[in-house]
Amino acid sequence: MNMHKYEKIWIFFGSATLLVFLTLVGISAFYMGNKPPSCAVTLDPETVREHTLFKEPGLKEIGDNEYQLTIVASAFDYDVGNPEKVIEIPKGAKVHVSSTTTDVIHGFEIAGTNVNMMLEPGYISTYTNTFKNAGTYTLVCNEYCGVGHHLMSATIEVVE
Ligand code: CUA
């Protein structure tokens, strides 16, 4: 079989790229232990407020510089535990975020951080993030959810 020179080059290039990609994914998954955010925890979207995690939304200290942040999303609001919709987090704190929605799909993005989740009715979305830089961050909904979509936001203050 006669193969053109360029064909050989591209087959080599394609295979090498695939190999590098699979190696990186393998190292990331098996050596560094990275995995996609879990969405295996389910609840009834109609009774979110009765769930132990979401009875009192907001920030709770659970350890040494470690916090649990729970937020209930609904059209078109994030319940963060206070009417001002401001969450104060000490700089450097490790925060376990848990959130869910009581109605339709909402987004959960803390702009400027790696926190970016989709909130689906019936599922608890979780993400752990360490807030390394002080400043004001905005929690926004990035999934179109209706006429008030653009009004859905809350503020996160990372303080020294
Ligand atoms: Cu909630 Cu868009």
From TrEMBL:
UniProt key word Membrane: yes
Range of residues in the leader sequence: none
GO cellular component: cell envelope; membrane
Role this protein plays: Subunits I and II form the functional core of the enzyme complex. Electrons originating in cytochrome c are transferred via heme a and Cu(A) to the binuclear center formed by heme a3 and Cu(B).
Annotated transmembrane regions: 9-32
Name of the protein in its database record: Cytochrome aa3 subunit 2
GO MF, one annotated term: cytochrome-c oxidase activity
Subcellular localization(s) per the UniProt record: Cell envelope
Cited InterPro entries: Ba3_CcO_II_C (IPR034214), CcO_II-like_C (IPR002429), Copper_CuA (IPR001505), Cupredoxin (IPR008972), NosZ/Cyto_c_oxidase_sub2 (IPR051403)
Cross-referenced SUPFAM superfamilies: Cupredoxins
UniProt domain Cytochrome oxidase subunit II copper A binding: residue ranges: 64-160
